[in-house]
Amino acid sequence: MIAVLAGGAVREAAVVPWVLLAVAVIGDLALSFRRPKALTFETPPEIFVGETATLRLAIDRAPRDLRARFDWPAGLGGSGETLFHPASGGRATSEVRCRAIRRGVWRLEHVWLLWKSRLKLLEFVPRLDAGAEIRVVPNIRLVQSGQITTTVLSTLFGAKENRAIGEGSEFQQLRDFVPGMDIKTIDWKRSARRRSLVAKELRAERNHHVIVALDNGYLMREEIAGLPKIDHAVTAALAIAWAAAIGGDLVGYYSYDVKPRSFAAPAPGRAAFARLRHWTAELSYVSRETNHTLALSELNARTPKRSLIVVFTDFIDTTSAELLIENIAILARRHLLIFVTIRDPELEALVETPPQDLNGAAALVAANQSIHERRLVLERLSRMGVTIVDARPEAITARLISTYLEIKARELI
Predict the structure, then answer these.
(1) Which of 75, 161, 195, 406 could disulfide-link 102, Cβ–Cβ 3.0 to 4.6 Å?
(2) 110 has pLDDT over 90
(3) How do beta strands 387-391 and 336-342 pair?
(4) Which part of the chain is the DUF58 domain (predicted)?
(5) 324 contacts 313 by C-beta, under 8 angstroms
(6) Which of 8-22, 266-280, 353-367 has the least mean pLDDT?
C-alpha cells in the first residue's frame, strides 16, 4: 500500500517480489506436479461387526510424504489420515485400521490424497475413486474358534455319564445292573424274565425346538460398548443357535418390531445355523417402536409345540414394559422362555461414581431409578417362571450358553 501511494520507481520495485513469487510457484509446480494414479485397495472379504480389520492401499507414481484421508461410511470407522511408505518402482503402500460398527455392505467411494510440493509452496489435494466394497457381517468368532462346540460336546456328550433320568427322557439301551448304579433304573419285568437284574439306560431327549426371537425396534438401536444392542443380541443369538445345533436340537428364528417380520420354523443341524446367519446379516436397523402384543401373539400362534424361546428385547421402565410382561406371561404358559437383556456399563458406572455438582447428582438419581425399575421388571418375569439372562455385552454370550446347557441337563424343555 505504501509503495502504491508513493508511486514512481518505488511502485515499480514493489512489483518485483510478486513476480519472483509467481515464478517460484510456477517452477515449484513444474518440479512437483506428479499426479498419483492406479490406487488399489486390498480388503478382507468380510469383517465381523465390532472387530477391527486392516485395509491395505497401494498407489503408483507416489510423491514424497503422500498421505490419504478417508470419508468413512456410516457402518465403518477408522483413522482420518494415513501416511504412504515408499516401495519399489515408484510405488507406495499404506495400511489403515478399520472398525466395523454396523452390519451391511459399505462402499468407500473415494480417497483424498495430500502432498506438498518440493519447495513447500503448494499443497495438492486431489480426489481418487476407490470403489472399495466392505461387507460387515454378524460376529461368529466364538463359533469359528470351536469354543462353543467343545463346551457343548464336553457337557452333554462327554466322558462323564450323562443319564438324564426323569420325565421326558429317552430310552437308550438295557444293561446288566452292577453295584453302584441307581436302583431306580432297574427294569423289574425284564429282570424277572432273565432272572438277573437288568437296568434301563436313559439319555437326554433331543430334537427340542429352540426359537431365537429378536426384537428389532428402536430401543435396540441404542449403542452400548460401541455397538447397537441389536448387534450384541445377534452375536449371542448366533452363538446359542450353534450350541443348540450341536446339542441336537432344532433351531428357528423370529424377528419383529412394529409388526412380525420374519419367521422360520425350527430346522435341524448346521444348515439352520447357516440360514440364521444369512438372515441376521440382512437384518436392517429400524426406528420403529416395538409392538409386543402383536409380535408375541403371532409367535405363540406359530409355535404349537412346547419350545425353548429365547427373547432378545429391551425396555425403558415399568410402564413401557407392562404390555411386554403380559404377553411374556401368555407365552410362558406353554413354552420355556429365556428373557435376554443387555446391561449398560456406562449407566452402572454412573451410579458408582460420586457426583461432583448438581447436574451429576440429578444424573445419579435418574440412573438409580432406571436400574431399580429394570430390576423390578426382571423380578416379575422371574416369578412367572421365565429364565432371566441380564448381563453386560461381553458376558451375555457365555451366560446364555451356560443357561441353555443347564436347561438341557435338567430336562426342563
Answers:
(1) 75
(2) no
(3) parallel
(4) 174-352
(5) yes
(6) 8-22
